[in-house]
Amino acid sequence: MRKLVSRILPQGDTRNAQGNTARPQGGAFARKGSEITLGPCNRWSGSRSAFALALAPLALSACAGGPEPVSLVDSAPAQRAWVAQCEDWDEWDKPGPPFRIYGDTYYVGTCGITAILVAGADGHTLIDSGTDKGADAVLANIRALGFFPQDVKTLLTSHEHFDHVGGMAKLQAATGARIVTTAAAAAVLRSGKPGADDPQATSDHPPFAPVTGPMTILTRATMQRFAGREFTPIFTPGHTPGALSWRWRDCEGTDCQSIVYADSLNPISADGYRFSDNPRLIAAMRRGLRDLARVDCEIVLAPHPAAALMRDRLSGTSPLVNRSGCRNYATTASARLDARLAAERKGG
């Protein structure tokens, strides 16, 4: 595989205090003076050196048909841009700018639906697709960061609903990547329709393009290695039978954090469905909640960004790094499940 050229370091020192290569925001570029500034996608500004001109095809290809490229140097401007453009519980297919979350972990989803790119020298891992239409925004955001979609080697899933995996067939076609998921989710991906045992099976979810490419089915919650990086699945059924959460570590210099993409875990359903009539699903959901609450977790993310208070954390109202994040998330989900079961006992 070709060497990745998506993150170009500024001229001058390229090492931080720990001697590690600096970790810029991926993509095409920012800052005046000795560094390159890319203005609107139809023009260059700042330095026009041979080095800058040599990079022009990459930068312009990142612009074509997608959002304007983001800064290589500082993740804060791109994070602020997302906060300015997106609202809590925003529209699922509304495009939003990509940004670096931490280390080599990037947000590439829409305003209303999360997709996460974890970049690596041996290839990238992408979690969730959004809807079929949302997948176009995800691909555009990957390119805007300066990465190549065909360097995505693995596609991971959270839960098997059309708003989160409806674009998987499109992403697999664009990347050639293998999908890694559960047996229940794989059946939905192959059919493009919700499973009969899904609490929302009769909620009139629209069908989506079935996946026809390669898939790996997980049977145990053991560490997996994708493109040289370690990911640990957490089985968290309940919102759907095949739902997964994922944990990995990422670093900035010598400062490393445990990142968890925690599934929705929301006990909502179609009319007439009763969770209390499905004790095995309830037991599995509680096991998943316990596992999620206990996992080493410093940055929690979620399939709907508002569920993890993304705007508050990017704007500084709440901390991005919070060792209690997963425990708080699981506690909130447990309380929702308890409330749902109590309502069902009362005939609700």
CATH fold description: Metallo-beta-lactamase, Chain A
CATH architectural category: 4-Layer Sandwich
Q: Main sheet?
A: 7 strands, mixed
Range of strand content: 15-25%
Fraction of residues in H or I helices = 25-40%
Q: Could you spell the SSE succession in H and E letters?
A: EEHHEEEEHEHHEHEEEEEHEHH
* Overall 3D shape: globular
Q: Strands of the largest sheet, in order across it?
A: 3-4-5-6-7-8-9
Count up the domains. 1
The name of the CATH superfamily reads: Ribonuclease Z/Hydroxyacylglutathione hydrolase-like
Q: Report the total helices.
A: 9
Low-confidence stretches: 1-65
Distance between the termini: 56 Å
Quick one: how many beta strands? 14
What does this 3D model show about the protein?
This protein is of the alpha/beta class. It has a single domain (71-345), classed as Ribonuclease Z/Hydroxyacylglutathione hydrolase-like (Metallo-beta-lactamase, Chain A, 4-Layer Sandwich). Helices cover 29% and strands 18% of the residues. The protein contains 9 helices and 14 strands. The chain has helices at 50-63, 76-85, 132-144, 162-165, 168-175, 183-191, 279-294, 310-315, 325-345, and strands at residues 36-38, 44-46, 99-102, 105-107, 116-118, 124-127, 152-156, 178-182, 215-218, 224-226, 229-235, 244-252, 255-261, 299-301. A 7-stranded mixed beta sheet has the order 3-4-5-6-7-8-9. β8, α6 (183-191) and β9 (215-218) form a beta-alpha-beta unit. α7 (279-294) packs antiparallel against α9 (325-345). The longest helix is centred in the C-terminal third of the chain and has 21 residues, at 325-345. It is globular and about 55 Å long.
